[in-house]
Amino acid sequence: MSVEGIAILILIGSFLLMVLLRFQISYAVALASLFTLLYLGLPLTTICQQMVKGISSFSLMAVPFFITMGVLMGSGGISEKLIGLADALVGWMRGGLGMVNVVDSFFFGGISGSAAADTASLGSILIPVMVKAGYDRDFSVALTIASSVEGILVPPSHNMVIYAMAAGGVSVGSLFLAGYIPGALLAISLMITTYIIAIRRNYPKGAKFNLINLLVQMGKSIWALAAVLIVVVGVVAGVFTATESAAIAVIYSLIVSVFIYKGLTWKGVWKALDECIDTLSIVLILISTSSIFGYLLTRLHVPELAANALIGVSDNPIVIALLINLILLFLGCIMDMAPIILIATPILLPVATSIGINPVQFGIMMVLNCGIGLLTPPVGAVLFIGSAVGKIPMEKVVRAMIPFYLSMIATLLLITFIPEISMFLPSLMK
Length: 430
Hints:
Layout: H1 3-20, H2 25-40, H3 45-55, H4 62-75, H5 78-90, H6 96-112, H7 115-132, H8 137-148, H9 150-153, H10 158-167, H11 172-201, H12 211-236, H13 242-260, H14 266-299, H15 302-313, H16 317-334, H17 337-354, H18 359-373, H19 381-390, H20 394-417, H21 420-429
Helix pairs in contact: 1-2, 2-14, 3-14, 4-10, 4-13, 4-14, 5-6, 5-12, 6-7, 6-8, 6-11, 7-8, 7-19, 8-19, 8-20, 10-17, 10-18, 11-18, 11-20, 11-21, 12-13, 14-17, 15-17, 16-17, 16-18, 17-18, 18-20
């Protein structure tokens, strides 16, 4: 075997071994890169250079701002307002509280951009209410975590910013626009699944539709929803960059949470900022260590080898697209979202573009694949959070998730093979 082949084996083999041994992903990435550098005889100063290079990006500053915005809005009493709005919209249907759960995740996701925050915040409110109303606990938890994935598709999502950076200059504004229709499609597929289950199990309807109540709830929620408009409209219209819009959104979120909704005290603000620092430290360490890993992947020509290997299996674009999705779904079972985006994007994006998939469309595919991974054992973070919030064993949640897995995979296939779902709004705005 050549020197390059042995180096690839060391890099990827040691990384996968440490993942299976439950090392922290950032340690696994850094150590695998260190072993490979030592084997290749490269200077260890490369580690520091690449780590600094990985986080030395103006656009990357949007990530901490978006995370801060989500934490502030999530801690500021926004959840109850959005639940009221969702109930006024769809609560009258069969399985109304389930429908509210799905729609509320669509709204809240546009504020938090995090499936974990969605599950922890909304789940703690909605799951007990659903159980009290006669819904099965395992169904309530499964629906809550499934609908939380809408939050990483609907802008502003900091994972979209991470993908844009990893993909090398994909427009953040285009990614934001591209996420709306797939997010809505996922919501619709989950609502259809919920309706079918509600009919079979005879779950209750909510109160009759009331237009006046809907207008009242919209009035209460408008301040929260305006945060999304500030970011998306500002970026798409070119008024400011993604980073600038995120900074403005943080200030706006602080004003709304403290002075308008009054759900957050100044003491609570400091607590929220402390939570942000914990999250950001994890994200930035991942990005910096993944930069070394990506540097070695490129140096060892792994993207080209992966492309040739996939094309060697079949030259049919449909088969290659399915293989890409299977790889990402498998990675989602053993890794968290950010490292998958940072590590897999340089490898799989060239393959995807070679079969005609637009980088923006591929970003949506990758984010949804990773979102499904958040709900799958053995390391699905949102699956664990949902199980803890709902006070139910993880095994029961996984069984209840089966119909939702199917609807999410169906949505993924539609996004994969119908580019217009992702590309319609970006193309329209161009």
